Amino acid sequence: ILCLFSAAVALDFKYHHAEELEQYLKGIHAAYPSLTHLHSIGRSVEGRDLWVLVLGRFPTHHKIGIPEFKYVANMHGDETVGREILLHLIDFLVTSYGRDPVITRLINNTRIHIMPTMNPDGFEATKVPDCYYTRGRYNQNGKDLNRNFPDAFENNSASIQPETRAVMDWIKNETFVLSANLHGGALVASYTFDNGNPVTGSLEGYSRSPDDDVFVHLAKTYSSNHASMYKGVGCDNRQTFPEGITNGYSWYQLEGGMQDYNYVWGQCFEITLELSCCKYPPADQLEKFWRDNKVALIEYMKQVHLGVKGQVTDKNGNPIPNAIVEAKGRPHVCPYRTNEQGEYFLLLLPGTYVINATVPGFKSMLKTVEIPDNTGNFSALKQDFSLPEASDQIRSRFASCPKTPLYQELARASAAVKPTLHTLVLMTIMLVIFK
């Protein structure tokens, strides 16, 4: 019986279509019920389930202090390597648990969400695999899912697709801290922002987020642990990426991308991983792609334990949801807030920071922290805040962040305080007359 059961969840290096993928995930969950949780976060245009397998010591629900991590692949249906790599990652994690001490500690201290395909319809529609482009890139409504999210810089007129809506709701309902989405067509780790304006430095060709140092570190973590990405050699002579990384905007401007949405509205640091020059390579190359990415996938997951985490409570020890907690000097355009359990997670590189906990209407609390590199210990630095004047009844009054181009408003405000050339000339004339 054990042999038959093992055969049922055995994973070959080949492409798995919708029924096979579903069968495999259900087999894994049946074989490891205490370690995994399988659920669908929604359905595609054609009604296919958007499956997510969760791994962890408490796979069915969030546990205080344990950060949430996710991998998403195949949002472009014809970019297929990530889809299969994530299935092999699942296989590696469940079979290594209890045997490999590093993997065991990673799973015990992290809740890991894996979505092998965000665009199952596009994958099934790709009848003739191609290295460059097929119509399967889009969902069944002909929409590019990586141009379909609300944008922080300009109005995105694209109608939200079922797959996009499912992911947006998923992000809203979980406390994701770190994420990556897997693509094909290049070999590089790309990081936010994908879009930009003068406020974020787009005039210089680089759209810088408040946490640019962390994003560079995250991208380098993946590229340096990949078999060849760190070399920076592009897929043709025109395209090179020093150290195998790039700022998204520096590469090409993208409106409505998923990684910017995660960072601005989901409080989740996400990078985009381009894993193969050929979008849909022959199946006999999949084993090499797995070997090339295996270490990088694990090392990147460990980074969810960077920085600082903790709870914000009132004088009675009750958690305060929606309290703003941010590091001084790096405010987010949509302030990062505590979840329903009063928890916060801030990804920060080792160093000294001032952490500001604020409940609107009450006095802020500042704490200086020295953050070590705790990724090897699988736990960020813990720093709680007790706000004696605040009440746990202060909830959602200031909690919502509108799905509008927030950086557009910031650009207008910035321009408003800058004197125009006309104003400068007028002031100079007035000064001369006065003298």
UniProtKB/TrEMBL annotation:
SUPFAM superfamilies the record matches: Carboxypeptidase regulatory domain-like, Zn-dependent exopeptidases
Gene Ontology, cellular component aspect: extracellular space
Stretches assigned to the Peptidase M14 domain: 14-304
SMART domains given in the database record: Zn_pept
Catalytic residue positions: E274 (proton donor/acceptor)
Keyword terms of this UniProt record: Carboxypeptidase, Glycoprotein, Hydrolase, Protease
Keyword tRNA processing: no
Biological process terms in GO annotation: peptide metabolic process; protein processing
GO molecular function, one term: metallocarboxypeptidase activity
Top-rank lineage group of the source organism: Eukaryota
Key word Transport present: no
Family per similarity comment: Belongs to the peptidase M14 family.
Protein name (database record): CBPM Carboxypeptidase
Lineage: Eukaryota, Metazoa, Chordata, Craniata, Vertebrata
Gene label: Cpm
